[in-house]
Each structure stands twice: as structure tokens, then as C-alpha cells.
Specification:
This protein is about 30% helix and about 25% strand. It is built from eight helices and 15 strands. The radius of gyration is 17 Å and the shape is globular.
């Protein structure tokens, strides 16, 4: 089990935002924390402790206000810790090389592949061909849904478009096996608890514990050390995790140093 730290960037600043409130229009989102330190500061901090595989996420959509400032901050973080961070947010075959050349170990893909309530396999193959399996992480953000006619049985379904639209792709071993042919890792957000700092989705962690072919990082709701121990136990000590708004670096009560030591 590894601790994967994060650097979420919005309007050029490191922030923690309740993901389900994120909109293209600035000011519409609910912010838990806005840092006075820049993105490169956090990258250097993670590098100093040897914490690799962290996520730099651009929260502004390309072409909207704030995107260029966010991109500049993201590139500065990648250059401050070359090879130690992954990057996501608006990644396409056309711009992926710029982030990889800046020092990203992987690109994390969401909207380019998962949009409009469906999975675009043509885009997935294009990105796979552009960067290769070893540089690609798929973000399978998901939400629990009861059985619905036209959707499928109860379970965790991949969601798209800022987590607003449900796909017909249910998280299960066969689906993970299919996606794993294209990527090197999965990042899986439990969107109903993401950014709310009130506990993890134990059912999702239990479900993912059956998977061991490529690394999985769980995100969503971690707010104390007991949650991390639950992930360790349910995930058989092989599932990675990331912590956002609960971390003391971002205004929360959960100690960055204690988490580091717990995972050493």
C-alpha cells in the first residue's frame, strides 16, 4: 500500500474542491481550501520524502478562464519533481507529450475517454497509441447505483462529465481486465464521498480488493487513520490511496507526517 499525494490546481492555485460542485464557470464550485503556497512547493515536499506517483490535477477546462494559469502551475510542479508525479485534466493525444516532456511519469485520462455518458474506445485507442500503456492511467470515477432498467444490476458505475452522467460500464473484474490492456494503473474516485471528508466507500474498496493485475489508487472520503487501515485490510495491503481535504497540508486534521510513517 502506498500513499499517493495530490496537487489539485484551479485558477492557478492549489485548492481542495468538492468534486461534484466543479463547474466550468469560476466561482460556482465549493472550495474546502485554497493554499497560499504554489504547486511547485508541494512537488518539492513530496520529492523530499520520496513520495512518488502523486497526482497533479488541472481542474480548469482548456479554453476557460484560469486554464492557462493552472497549466503553468502544473508544469512547474512536474518540473520540480521529474518522474515523480502523474498529471490529469484535459489530457489528449495532442497535449500529452508536453506534460510527459515536463516530467510527468504518467498522464491520467478522464473526459477524453469517458464523456457524454459513454466510453469512447476510439479515443482510448488513440491515446494508448500516442503515449503507450506504461504512461497511461485511467480514472474510473464511479458512483453506486441501484439496479435500473436499461442500465444494469446494482453496483458502481463509471460516471462522466464532471461526474454528472452515468455510463453503462459497471466496475467489475471483466471491465477492469478490458481497460487494463490499455493502461498501467487505475485511479478510482468514489464520487459520492469525494471531498466531503466523512468516510470512505467500504463496498467499493471491498470490490476492488479482488483486483491485482495492475495498481489501483482509491480516492474519496478518507478523514482519519482508521479509514486508511480499513483500506489496508480490505484491500489486502496492495491498494494505494490518496488524501485531499482531510490532510493538514490542505487545512484538514489528518497529519501528513503520520500518514507517511504509517506507509513506510
Amino acid at each position: 500500500m502506498q500513499f499517493r499525494p495530490c496537487i489539485d490546481i484551479h485558477d492557478g492555485k492549489v485548492k481542495q474542491i468538492v468534486g461534484s460542485t466543479l463547474k466550468d464557470k469560476s466561482g460556482a464550485q465549493k472550495e474546502n481550501f485554497v493554499s497560499q503556497k504554489d504547486a511547485a512547493y508541494y512537488a518539492k515536499l513530496y520529492a523530499s520524502h520520496g513520495l512518488s506517483g502523486g497526482h497533479v490535477i488541472l481542474l480548469n477546462k482548456e479554453g476557460t478562464d484560469g486554464y492557462e494559469a493552472t497549466k503553468k502551475a502544473a508544469l512547474s510542479a512536474l518540473k520540480a519533481y521529474p518522474g515523480g508525479l502523474q498529471v490529469g485534466g484535459g489530457i489528449t493525444p495532442e497535449n500529452a507529450d508536453e506534460f510527459l516532456d515536463a516530467g510527468a511519469s504518467h498522464v491520467i485520462v478522464t473526459s477524453y475517454v469517458f464523456s457524454g455518458g459513454s466510453v469512447n474506445y476510439e479515443n482510448l485507442r488513440r491515446l494508448y497509441e500516442a503515449v503507450g500503456k506504461k504512461h497511461l492511467v485511467l480514472d474510473l470515477s464511479c458512483r453506486y447505483c441501484e439496479a435500473k432498467e436499461g442500465v444494469g444490476p446494482a453496483g458502481y458505475y463509471i460516471v462522466t462529465d464532471r461526474w454528472q452522467n452515468l455510463t453503462k460500464e459497471r466496475i467489475c473484474v471483466p471491465v477492469l481486465e478490458e481497460f487494463a490492456t490499455y493502461c498501467n494503473e487505475f485511479l478510482i474516485h468514489a464520487v459520492d464521498v469525494e471531498g466531503k471528508n466523512n468516510g470512505i466507500e467500504k463496498r467499493l474498496v471491498q470490490l476492488l480488493s479482488d483486483w491485482d493485475q495492475i495498481p489501483v489508487t482509491y480516492a474519496g472520503g478518507i478523514h482519519n487513520l482508521e479509514d486508511i487501515e480499513t483500506i489496508r485490510n480490505l484491500g489486502r495491503n496492495r491498494m494505494n490511496f490518496t488524501v485531499g481535504s482531510a490532510l493538514d497540508l490542505f487545512g484538514g486534521n489528518l497529519s501528513f507526517d503520520e500518514i507517511r510513517k504509517l506507509c513506510e
